[in-house]
């Protein structure tokens, strides 16, 4: 399933052409859409003599139609959980319906959120969104994404909770103005992917989320990230390298322009505390110690609870053994 298909289905659910939205006979804004190339924003249009133009009485005013959209008790109100972008599109379909008619919507949309819709492909249909600045595709099934299908105007790209394992296609011609790249909860691992996290591909990156992937080489990753001169926010928690005891201190000292690491602000005291740690790479060991304490196990038969065999009995003896396995 492609992003374009999910987007078109989402537009149909929003009902941008149905009452109280759209260029229907009920909308006074529709009356002005035929006389003005951009359409009126609110109310009736005045003629040069100061007189209001006459419109059919069966047309509702934009104020009334907007109230039907915003009133939570209205049958046309958006259900809870819809994005602000959804509400904005429906309001636009009342105030300036010609902007949401046909292909015009591709020229005005700046943010697109397709979350949890089973999307597998980021197709070239996105290139129609020539003003798109924010693309949120979290919780889908995307494994590869080609930069050739991304609008060049993008500033935010969020791919959290997908199946991305390779950044090569994404970095072929990445959006040059991208400021946030969200790749948390994917299948990325180093060192094969570290080389794509440099200023050669992301010169304007301010925020980077790589949490809960499989990066293991802290030294190699930091050497690549250090080229991102505008990087201020970095999330690496959930990766194996975050288990290294000197992990946070080494990053804080290695990336002096960083302001937030793993959602925790980096203050002057912490900078002073870890000063010079980046010049001691020998302190970074590719090993970690994990202590697990098992407090109670339920649902396992207790051997002592079985009936004891009588002395001299020739019945077979049954023994039980148990093991606990941990996967890292």
Automatic annotation (TrEMBL):
Key words, A-Z: Leucine-rich repeat, Repeat
InterPro entries xref list: Leu-rich_rpt (IPR001611), Leu-rich_rpt_typical-subtyp (IPR003591), LRR_dom_sf (IPR032675)
GO CC annotations, alphabetized: cytoplasm
Record-linked SMART domains: LRR_TYP (SM00369)
Keyword Transferase annotated: no
SUPFAM superfamilies: Outer arm dynein light chain 1
ATP-binding in keyword set: no
Stored Pfam families: LRR_1 (PF00560)
Protein name: LRC43 protein
Species for this entry: Aegotheles bennettii
Chain's gene name: Lrrc43
């Amino acid at each position: 399933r492609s992003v374009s298909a999910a987007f078109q289905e989402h537009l149909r659910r929003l009902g941008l052409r149905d009452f109280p939205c759209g260029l229907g006979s009920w909308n006074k804004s529709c009356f002005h859409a035929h006389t003005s190339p951009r359409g009126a924003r609110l109310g009736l249009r005045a003629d040069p003599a100061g007189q209001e133009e006459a419109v059919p009485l069966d047309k509702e005013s934009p104020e009334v139609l907007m109230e039907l959209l915003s009133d939570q008790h209205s049958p046309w109100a958006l259900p809870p959980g819809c994005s602000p972008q959804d509400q904005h599109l429906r309001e636009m379909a009342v105030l300036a319906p010609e902007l949401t008619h046909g292909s015009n919507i591709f020229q005005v949309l700046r943010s697109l959120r397709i979350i949890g819709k089973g999307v597998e492909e980021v197709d070239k249909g996105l290139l129609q969104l020539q003003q798109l600045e924010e693309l949120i595709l979290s919780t889908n099934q995307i494994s590869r994404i080609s930069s050739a299908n991304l609008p060049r105007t993008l500033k935010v790209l969020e791919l959290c909770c997908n199946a991305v394992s390779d950044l090569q296609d994404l970095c072929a011609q990445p959006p040059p103005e991208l400021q946030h790249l969200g790749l948390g909860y994917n299948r990325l691992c180093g060192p094969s992917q570290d080389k794509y996290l440099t200023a050669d591909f992301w010169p304007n990156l301010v925020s980077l989320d790589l949490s809960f992937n499989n990066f293991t080489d802290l030294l190699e990753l930091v050497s690549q990230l250090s080229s991102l001169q505008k990087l201020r926010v970095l999330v690496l928690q959930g990766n194996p390298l975050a288990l290294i005891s000197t992990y946070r201190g080494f990053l804080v000292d290695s990336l002096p322009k960083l302001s937030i690491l793993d959602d925790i602000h980096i203050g002057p005291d912490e900078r002073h505390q870890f000063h010079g740690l980046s010049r001691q790479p020998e302190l970074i060991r590719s090993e970690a110690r994990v202590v697990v304490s098992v407090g109670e196990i339920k649902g396992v038969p207790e051997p002592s609870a079985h009936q004891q065999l009588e002395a001299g009995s020739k019945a077979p003896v049954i023994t039980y053994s148990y093991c606990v396995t941990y996967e890292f």
